[in-house]
Design brief:
about 325 residues, alpha/beta, 6-stranded mixed β-sheet, globular
Length: about 325
């Protein structure tokens, strides 16, 4: 039985009263064409500090973004109160497309990816030469993550006054990674900053490293006006430092010379998200030799075409060894 006739009038249609007194829901979302552009500097318990027109603004993610999370380095669009005054809150309504994403997992069996930083150009891997001892497997894992994300790696070795860098440099020599060697005295005096700063111009550089290696001390030397508390303590039993940086923070270099992103010290760098086939892209001298490889070749098996490619003199055997060491790093723990 039809409730209404064929030609109904709006007055004839019964509508339920809105008991909450607010506007009815709609699936049409505003486009926010007048939203301001900003960059996420740090994230703390759902509140995001962003740089908008030279001032810091605290914001929260808009509901329409759903489960999509903004991370340090993201370029975002914001609406609401953008004055940056105390107790004001803006709203992030859009996250722009990312040029790069550096990810890690808690371990190699963890399917949950953690985004370390977005839109970075370079990954500075900071390792101490002693106290705590260098962990090559952790460095390998960071390198794999950098190559997968399309970032340029930079190896920064600290505390050269306690141990020479020769052994570590020999291990990574075939990879031709830019590197800087610093001493504890240079870190404390700020003299190490000049050598590192020469590699940072015009780039967004994320700094990662094991706890206690002097990473935050180095960042403080690079950006002295934004000093963060440093560790100053390494456990004598475990050789591990205490975490003092608890959240990633993007800091601008003087003179608009680039950005540094200080990240919390890591004790593991899981690679469950890594596609091994992407790692070969960081070896342009070896990549052409993979054309003769069998399908889904791991590049570390008897019929891999890279062996013949290197034997014919197309590439340095040390480069093939380095590639295979990096590809096998998921099969080992960082402490091996």
């Amino acid at each position: 039985m039809r409730r209404y006739g064929k030609h109904t009038d709006e007055d004839d249609i019964r509508s339920r009263p809105n008991r909450k007194g607010n506007r009815p829901r709609t699936h049409i979302r505003p486009k926010h064409e007048d939203a301001a552009e900003g960059m996420v500097l740090t994230v703390d318990r759902g509140r995001l500090t962003c740089l908008v027109d030279g001032r810091t603004v605290v914001a929260m993610k808009a509901r329409e973004l759903g489960r999509k999370a903004a991370v340090v380095g993201d370029q975002v669009a914001l609406v609401g109160d953008l004055t940056g005054q105390k107790d004001t809150l803006a709203r992030i309504v859009r996250i722009e497309e990312r040029s790069s994403v550096l990810r890690r997992t808690a371990d190699d069996d963890d399917p949950y990816e953690r985004v370390v930083v977005a839109n970075a150009d370079q990954l500075a891997i900071v390792t101490a030469l002693a106290d705590p001892e260098p962990r090559p497997r952790l460095i390998d894992r960071c390198l794999v993550a950098a190559y997968d994300a399309g970032l340029t790696p930079l190896l920064v070795m600290t505390k050269s006054d306690l141990a020479p860098p020769d052994k570590l440099l020999e291990l990574y020599g075939a990879l031709d990674i830019p590197h800087v060697v610093t001493s504890r005295e240079e870190l404390e005096s700020g003299g190490a900053a000049d050598g590192v700063r020469a590699h940072l111009g015009g780039r967004v550089t994320a700094f990662v490293g094991h706890s206690g290696v002097g990473k935050t001390t180095l960042v403080n030397a690079l950006v002295p006006e934004e000093r963060r508390r440093t560790t100053g303590h390494v456990n004598a039993v475990t050789g591990r430092g205490r975490h003092t940086t608890t959240s990633a923070l993007a800091l601008p270099l003087a003179g608009d010379a680039g950005w540094v992103v200080d990240t919390p010290g890591v004790r593991s760098f899981g690679l469950a998200h890594i596609d091994p086939s992407r790692v070969i892209l960081a070896f342009p001298d070896l990549e052409p030799g993979t054309e003769g490889c069998p399908r889904a070749c791991s590049h570390d098996e008897p019929d891999c075409a890279l062996d013949a490619w290197v034997a014919d003199g197309h590439a340095d055997p040390a480069r093939l060894y380095s590639l295979r060491r990096l590809l096998a790093t998921r099969e080992r723990t960082e402490g091996d």
